Amino acid sequence: MPAAASSPIPAVLVKLGPLDTGRIADLRPYFDSMPDPRARRGRWCSLTVILLVCACAVVSGARSMD
Fold first, then answer.
1. How far apart are CA 47 and CA 55, in angstroms?
2. H or E element in which residue 50 lies
3. How many Cβ atoms from other residues are within 10 Å of residue 30's Cβ?
4. What pLDDT was estimated at residue 29?
5. CB 60 within 8 A of CB 9
6. Residue 51 to residues 2, 19, 21, 47, 48: CA-CA distances in angstroms?
């Protein structure tokens, strides 16, 4: 017997139905408008990239930084 899928995302996507790309929200403009509190020296990635990765992690089920 195959193991049950650990991610609830496919089940949620089925409930949403076909996705219209015109209705999908783009978070980049919102994240781009946020001030970056980090010092200029030492930045490797933009704050927008970091926030988008965090948003993806939360959507995929992350509950902590561990």
1. 12
2. helix 47-59
3. 11
4. 85
5. yes
6. 35, 23, 21, 6, 5
Residue numbers in the chain where pLDDT is lower than 70: 1-21, 23-24
> Shortest CA distance to 55 belongs to which of 29, 24, 20, 31?
31
Task: Look at residue 40 in the predicted model and tell me its pLDDT.
Answer: 87
pLDDT at 4: 55
Residue that is written with structure tokens 């978070």 in the block = 27
* Rounded Cα distance, 19 and 7, in Å: 19
Q: Closest Cα to residue 59, out of 33, 24, 17, 34? A: 24
- Token couple for 29: 């403009």
